[in-house]
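Here is one chain, start to finish.
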Amino acid sequence: MSIDDALCALEARADVISVSNHGGRVLDSGPGVADVLPGIVQEVRENNNTRRVVITADGGLRTGFDVIKMLALGADYVLLGRPLAREAVSNGVEGVKRVLEYIQTDIRVAMLMTSCNTLQDIKETILIRDIELHT
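Its structure:
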């Protein structure tokens, strides 16, 4: 959840850097993954020219729209745990299949709504940041 930790992971020659606040349950007043991910991605990419390091994001993600946001903010992969675990416990394989279908549909809808035809088209420019509200 910090640039310093990500740079230490680079120095240690990590192949994967996971940006995670564990669903926001470690410190409820801590930043969200979306808040820190862009800075971490930028620093890792700028400070690592010799090899490709994979950056994953997770924590509090529930929908395909959340997946698209994390990809747009620079994650290479997005991890979803709780929605799948909940369904696995309560409804087994069929529940997990339903969640994965739901997420897949959400991703397709989000891509259509943002004019992204491929995963490579998903860029930060599809996100709306600081909006000025005019009354």
